[in-house]
Amino acid sequence: MDLRVAVFASGGGSNFQALVERARQYRVAFLVCNRPRAGALERAKNLNIPAYILAPRIFGDENLYADAVLDLLHKENIGLIALAGYLSKIPARIIGEFQGRILNIHPALLPRFGGKGFYGSRVHRAVLEANETVSGATVHFVDEDYDTGPILLQKKVPVLADDTPDSLAARVLRVEHDLFPEAIHLIAQGRVQIQDRHVTIHSPADDH
Ligand code: GAR
After folding, report:
1. Residues 180-191: pLDDT tens digits?
2. pLDDT tens-place string over residues 115-149
3. For 143, which of 57, 102, 149, 181 could close a Cys bridge (C-beta 3.0–4.6 Å)?
4. Is the CB of 85 under 6 A from ligand 1?
5. What would the pLDDT profile of 48-67 be if each residue is shown by its tens digit?
């Protein structure tokens, strides 16, 4: 059976849509969103993917929120969680149970321009303020901290002299839309191994 993926998103949801439309050897089972007006919800409706609005503040207690999310993940037989612009911290219990099975996409070349507070246009503004000539996108495994987990895939994107945070964000997003499905595809094919925080990608023919 195909790997079943739950996508968590808080914003426009363009990565969520790319994950649905470019799925090979995995299936997006549902979307979890923590904001009732997020664009991702509209996309889920158009794509016919079930969506759940779940946020710690709705439950008033992080443990109850973690219970609800875990119930859903178990009931739907989820093998992988994809954080696609999800701006709420994932409770430690979920990270513990889904160790090595939660991926996040970040719009820069980690470990640079990552960490708490580095999300969306803030990342691109910081890249431009640092006069970087290259930025990019990173797909990494999630650990208990912000943006520090083992890196699975990265791709560089040029920064142009007249870039604004918006123009850079758009160029990086186009790369993200290929990179995230590619990363999940590698996992679905069983080609990814993590050992001592080190990621190995086996070639299709490798016997491992
Ligand atoms: C993406 O650029 C993603 O990398 C970024 O939010 C954007 C969401 O766009 N995530 C972070 O900054 C996480 N630190 P989308 O809603 O259109 O997919």
Report:
1. 999 999 999 999
2. 998 999 999 999 999 999 999 999 999 998 889 99
3. 149
4. yes
5. 999 999 998 888 889 999 99
Rounded to the nearest angstrom, the distance between the alpha carbon of 91 and the centre of ligand 1 is 19
User: Is any atom of ligand 1 closer than 6 Å to the C-beta of 15?
Assistant: yes
Name residue, tokens 């149970």.
97
Q: Ligand 1 center to residue 41 CA distance, Å?
A: 15
CB atoms within 10 A of CB 186: 19
* Burial status of residue 207 (CB atoms within 10 A of its CB: 0-12, 13-18, 19 or more): exposed
Say whether 202 is catalytic.
no
pLDDT at 27 over 80: yes
119 lines ligand 1 (CB under 6 A): yes
pTM over 0.85: yes
